[in-house]
Amino acid sequence: MTQERIAAVRRFNRFYTRVVGALDEGHLQSRFALAEVRLLFEIAHRDGPTATELIADLALDAGYVSRLLRELARRRLVKSTRSAADGRERHLSLTAKGSATVIDLESRAGADVARLIQPLDDIAQARLVGAMDAIRSLLAPASPASAVVRAPSPGFVLRGLQPGDLGWVVQAHGELYTREYGWDDQFEALVAKIVAGFIETFDASRERCWIAERDSVRVGSVFLMRHPERDGVAKLRLLLVDPAARGLGIGQRLVRECTDFARASGYHTITLWTNDVLASARRIYQAEGYRLVNEEPHHSFGHDLKGQTWELALVEN
Questions:
Q1: DSSP state of 286
Q2: DSSP classification of residue 26
C-alpha cells in the first residue's frame, strides 16, 4: 500500500463528506445529527432490532448509541418493547411521530441526491452509480459495518445494443485489460476495429451483441459475428464482465446466449480466439463445451502471449 493511495482515499473521503453534508450540524437541513438520522433509518428498515444489534452492525460505541436512543425516545420518536424470547433484550420500533419523521427525512434525502446528480446526463449518472457500486463491493467485505451494507441487486438483465454501448465496449476493454494485464493501447485499437467491423457489415438475422446490465449500469458484453471465411461458422468475440459484477454468472449467461442464438440461426460451429492468460474466460468456454483446437505463441499488446483457438460444435456428427 502506497502513501499516494492512502492520501487519495483520504482526499475522496473529505470531498464526499462535504458533498453529502455529513458534517453539517443539522443533517438534511433537519434538527437531527447524522448519527440520529442513521439510527432512525435503521430502525425503520429493520424488523424490531435491538440496541445490541445496532451497536454491532454500525460499529458504534455502546454508550454513544444508548445516549442517542434515549434522546430519540425522549422526543417520542422511538419506543421499545421487551423481547418475548429474552427478557434482557428490548426491540426498537418507531412511534407514529417517528414514522412521519422518517418519511420526511427520506424525502429530504431523495431531493438532495436529485439536486446533486441533476446536472449530469444519463451516461454520467450511470458512471457515477457504477463507481459507487464498485467502491461498495470492494470495501464491504473489510468493513466492520458490512452486515448493514445494502448491496446492489444480485440480478442482471441482458439487452441488445443502445446508443453509447459500442463506445463503452471499447473503453471498458481498454481500461480493464490495461489494469489487469498491463496490455498497451494496441489492444484497445483492436477492439475498436472489431466493433467497427461489426457495425459496417451487420446482419441482424445472423449477428448480435448482448449488453449485461446490473442496476441500470453496463457490466458486461459479448458479440456473435459471422466468420468471414468459413460458411456456417460464427465467431464469439469481446466477452467482458466488469470486476464489480463477477461471480453472478453473467459470463456464463452471455456465452450461453451466443450458443442458443447461433444454433437457432443455423450455424454448425462457434469459434473464438483468446489468450491463455485469460483463465476465467477459458473456464467459462470449457464449461459450455468448447474444445481447444490450436495454440500459437505471439507477441501482442506489449507482451509475449499464447493465443488459443477454441471451437464449439453445434451439430452432432
A1: H
A2: S
Q: How confident is the model at residue 220 (pLDDT cuts 50, 70, 90)?
A: very high
Query: Quick one: how far is CA 113 from the chain centroid?
Result: 20
Question: 280 exposed, middle or buried (CB, 10 Å; 0-12, 13-18, 19+)?
Answer: exposed
* Alpha helix (H) residue ranges in the chain: 3-19, 34-44, 51-58, 62-74, 96-117, 122-139, 165-181, 185-200, 250-264, 279-288
Residue 140: what pLDDT? 62
What the block records as the C-alpha cell of 130 is: 457504477
pLDDT digits (tens, 9 = 90+) for 133-145: 667 766 765 444 4
In this structure, is the dihedral angle defined by the CA atoms of residues 146, 147, 150 and 156, taken in order, positive or negative?
positive
- Interior CA angle at 40 toward 37 and 45, to 5°? 125
User: How deeply is 122 buried, as exposed, middle or buried, from its count of CB atoms within 10 A (0-12, 13-18, 19+)?
Assistant: exposed
Phi, psi of 238 (to 5 degrees): 60, 45
The per-residue b/e assignment along 10-45, b for 16 or more CB within 10 angstroms, e otherwise, is eeeeeeeeeebeeeeeebbeeebebebbbbbebbbe
Task: Check if the beta carbon of residue 44 is closer than 8 Å to that of residue 78.
Answer: no
Interior CA angle at 309 toward 306 and 314, to 5°?
160
Q: Which residues pair with 94 in a beta bridge?
A: 78
Q: How many CA atoms lie within 13 A of 186 on its CB side?
A: 8
Using CA atoms, how far residue 176 sits from 67, 196, 308, in Å, is 47, 20, 20
Nearest Cα residue to 91 out of 106, 79, 107: 79
Going along 206-247, which residue ranges are E strands? Answer: 208-214, 217-226, 233-241
> Rounded CA gap, 290 and 5, in Å?
41
Assign 3-class secondary structure to 35-79. Answer: HHHHHHHHHHCCCCCEHHHHHHHHCCCHHHHHHHHHHHHHCCCEE
Determine the distance from the C-alpha atom of residue 250 to the mean position of all C-alpha atoms in its chain, rounded to a whole number: 11
3-class state of residue 166 by DSSP: helix
149, three cell numbers: 451494507
